[in-house]
Specification:
Radius of gyration of chain A: 30 Å
Number of helices of chain B: 17
Helix content of chain B: over 70%
Number of helices of chain A: 11
Shape of chain A: elongated
Shape of chain B: globular
Structural class of chain B: mainly alpha
Strand order of the largest sheet of chain A: 1-2
Low-confidence stretches of chain B: none
Number of strands of chain A: 2
Radius of gyration of chain B: 25 Å
Order of helices and strands of chain A: HHHHHEHEHHHHH
Oligomer: heterodimer
Largest interface: A-B, 32 and 34 residues
Mean pLDDT of chain B: 87
């Protein structure tokens, strides 16, 4: 809850975007002069609401560097993931390469060979035999759901969630303000109201007949 | 917006509860969900639940919601003692809550202690400058004291941040109209039309403002917006029909001296006039003579 209230500027930017979007979609319903006045108000180069001065726009990369703790944290988490996995992989690869670890109780087509028989380069082996290296990979990716069930939602083995957090990290209002300004600039104003007189006539005729 | 089915549901429940048929809690929930103002009933039935220990404890955590609802209703009915008791209970349960702080501010307001209420609200706003309800309470307070210009000031400040809140735009428009500041009101109505282009009432209000402003261009625009209202309501809006007639007559008077190069569609007003006549014939035949006299005065009668 706290973060929602912490940024009045971000909130204002979001409201501004909604209003600008309304202006874009409803532009044809207000007189041309009103539309032009509004567009000027939103997007003029001096003090328009949507205009963001170049030097003020915060760079996400710069933001990352300004907060070294965050970068360190992320690196640590990544390292703690990567090192044990590389070690296990090396271990499995060294001791069990070329072994058959399991057999699937049903036949499969040749297309599955690359998936199930990683590390065995023999085309004559039946596809339902699973090589040890493939077994390792299958477990690594397939057991993620099970791990999250047993170990709780955010455990160290699950890095997909962190990826999601990364991509949604920090809604950047300045960027969408700029985009909104660009699309507002190219709107062609075509006043819809003159057409409405004819439509009203048609409606009344229909009512009266 | 309350839809028709919800309205019938509400009135059914209302009669059932009023006749002692039970379902008071469901009724209160519905009132809360639809945000309708039934303060006297909420106070009566809410209190009867709150005073009944068994019923109250069966609500579980919803009990506190009910306390809040009853407190607000009590303030609306000027039963300040009840409101005070409710707020006291809530304060005991939630000692740090901002929401209870808001209720306390409202209680001060209900007592008429404007200055203290103002102080309470501004201290709450310092903690959280984005509390929409408190901003709106401030506007309402200024309006309640008759300081319309202060209300406008607050509203404008509010709209600077929450500029997508169309209800606030509507309130501002109505205040401007009441002060006869039509240009500003026209701006607000344009904003409303932008946010909801398919609501005929905004078109109608905007047309009214334009017609009141006068001048050839405004009159022509007003006529267009009356026309759009007719289109959006399927010709059922009497005010829009009258508006078209009045606009055409006024435009005719202004443009009499000039050459008529911009072609006005002459058919619309005669169609509107016929539609009006038909409406009157069906629904108020005794007033038909008044209508024909008025239309004749406007010279739009066919």
């Amino acid at each position: 809850m706290v973060h929602k209230y912490a940024k009045p500027r971000g909130y204002k930017a979001r409201q501004l975007i909604v209003r600008a979007r309304n202006l874009r979609s409803g532009a044809n319903f207000i007189p041309p002069r009103s539309f032009r006045a509004r567009r000027f108000y939103f997007s003029n180069e001096e003090n328009g609401l949507l205009h963001v001065p170049k030097d003020q726009a915060p760079n996400p990369q710069a933001q990352m560097f300004s907060d070294p703790n965050m970068a360190m944290d992320m690196m640590k988490k990544n390292l703690s993931m990567i090192i044990p996995q590389t070690l296990t992989f090396a271990w499995v690869n060294f001791f069990f390469s070329g072994f058959v670890a399991a057999k699937i109780p049903f036949p499969l087509t040749q297309r599955f060979r690359s998936m199930l028989q990683n590390g065995i380069d023999l085309s004559t082996v039946d596809v339902s035999y699973v090589s040890s290296r493939s077994w390792y990979f299958l477990n690594l990716f397939g057991l993620r759901g099970l791990f999250s069930l047993i170990l709780g939602e955010d455990n160290a083995t699950d890095d997909t969630q962190r990826m999601m957090q990364m991509s949604g990290f920090g809604f950047d209002p300045t960027k969408s303000l700029g985009a909104e300004k660009d699309s507002l600039d190219i709107v062609q104003h075509d006043w819809a109201l003159p057409k409405f007189e004819q439509r009203a006539e048609a409606v009344l005729r229909k009512v009266l007949s | 917006m309350v839809s028709k089915t919800e309205e019938t549901q509400l009135s059914n429940l209302e009669t059932q509860v009023d006749n002692g048929g039970g379902g008071a809690w469901e009724y209160l929930c519905l009132v809360r969900k639809l945000k309708v103002r039934r303060s006297d009933r909420v106070l009566k039935h809410g209190l009867s639940i709150l005073n009944d220990l068994k019923k109250r404890s069966s609500l579980g955590p919803d009990e506190w919601t009910l306390y809040e609802q009853v407190a607000v209703a009590a303030m609306d009915c000027q039963s300040l003692e009840v409101a005070k008791d409710c707020i006291k209970v809530l304060r005991k349960k939630f000692p740090e809550s901002k929401r209870v702080g808001r209720l306390e501010g409202m209680l001060l307001e209900a007592k008429g202690a404007w200055a203290e209420a103002e102080k309470a609200y501004s201290s709450l706003l310092e903690d959280n400058p984005l509390d929409q309800v408190i901003h709106k309470r401030r506007v309402a307070m200024a309006k309640g004291q008759g300081n319309v210009s202060v209300a406008i000031e607050w509203l404008n400040k509010y709209l600077e941040i929450f500029m997508a809140d169309h209800d606030a735009w509507r309130e501002l428009a109505e205040i401007y109209v009441s002060l006869q500041m039509y240009k500003q009101a026209a701006f607000c109505y344009e904003e409303l039309i932008l946010s909801q282009p398919m609501v005929p009432l905004y078109h109608l209000a905007y047309a009214d403002v334009l017609y009141t402003l006068g001048g050839l261009e405004n009159l022509q625009n007003a006529k267009k917006y009356y026309a759009s209202t007719i289109d959006l309501t399927g010709g059922k809006n009497t005010r829009a029909l009258f508006g078209v007639c009045l606009c055409s007559s006024a435009i005719g008077q202004i443009a009499k001296g000039r050459n008529k190069d911009d072609k006005e569609s002459p058919e619309l007003q005669s169609l509107a006039a016929t539609a009006l006549e038909r409406e009157y014939k069906q629904k108020a035949s005794d007033k038909l003579s008044l209508l024909t006299a008025a239309l004749k005065g406007l010279k739009v009668s066919s």
